[in-house]
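EI: anyone free to look at a 430-residue chain?
SC: sure, send it
EI:
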Amino acid sequence: MKRTFLFLLTGLVYLTGITGCEDETNKTEDNGGVPLTAITVNPASLTVPVGSKGQITATPVPADATGVWFEWSSEDPSIATVYQDGSVLIKKYKATPVTITVKSGTIEAKVEVSSQREPMTGIVVVDSIRLPVVGSVQQIIATPVPANTTDLFIWTSSNPDVATVDETGKVTSVSEGTAYVTVKGGDIEETVVVSVGLENLILDDNIPRMIFVGESLQMTVTTVPVADLPPGWATWTSSNTAVATVDADGNVTAVSRGTADISVSYGQIVKTVTISVWLAQKIDKTGWSVIDWSDQDAGDGGGVTMLINNSLNDYWHSQGGTGFPHWAVIDMGVPTEIVKIDTHRRHVNDDIGGDTKTVIYYVSDIPSPDFELWTKIAEGTYLTARETNHLMTLKTSVIVSARYLLIYLPDSHRSTYTSVCEIDAYYGLK
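SC: here you go
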């Protein structure tokens, strides 16, 4: 009985010893690698120009450490971005360094990376700008020299009551006047003169300086610089409303004979044009005669003399088959100053309308067939054949005293045919 117990006990000890030996052997194999104790970095600190890359090298300690895997991170990626090969890109300037960390497991090392300042040496900017009205906004574009400078722009206005400027150089006008906007980068600064208000007003050069009693005239004004202004921005006045009136939109109405100064103003800018109002009087055609012509079809309308017979029931019709131009010379008997001419085009029928197209008038003291000896005084065009108004009134471009009047028809709305009922001329009373 005792021998049996001893044998069992000895066997249990032996088995326990075997099991213990196997566990110790496994522990040694699990920790067979070389642990990482530190990371060395080179360089210890780094300075890199903006827009460029620098390189950091990480080395494990000990060199034969196993299971090492480096992870890189940046304290501020907006300033310095680090890549997994240890290269660092400097995106923009910052006065203080950015910390770059390299890590493997719980072991880490840090490098201070500084962005290198590139001082500004110049600023390219316009000398002046003009904002035409209060509330206008304009962006000033400033270009730094060199382009990769690390210095930032600082914008200021000498007179915010006239014009303000934000941190990007956008200027807003507050009131009329002058302000000086300064842009500064590092030790460099430039100034832009900001003027608020219109520089000038320009009245349309094509505005006729002579109108007749009862007529209206639209005045046109342009701002310098061109500005998008609300209706009623300008003030219109007449120096003599008994002669001519003008409304808030620049519409002039001739009231009686005489002269009037029509003025437009905005702020301190005033522009004026003198308008002469004439009374147009129809010239008595008694004693007028047609003395020469290119062609006529007397059997259709009555012939060329119908131009001056004071009737709209007959007309001068060109001869069929003849080419352009068609013309006729009228002897007015005495030298006459014509200021306005009425042309009554024949209305053929509702299908055709009127055939006459362009009408040109000349005057001369010599009834010569040489057109170079004539002075052109008026020209007009019937735009279509079917215009409902066949009366065309033309003001003369020049006022010339002459005895002979020439009507000249160079084209037509209907083949080569032209037909005119009547001509009336007017002289002017100032």
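EI: The longest strand covers residues 269-282.
SC: 👍
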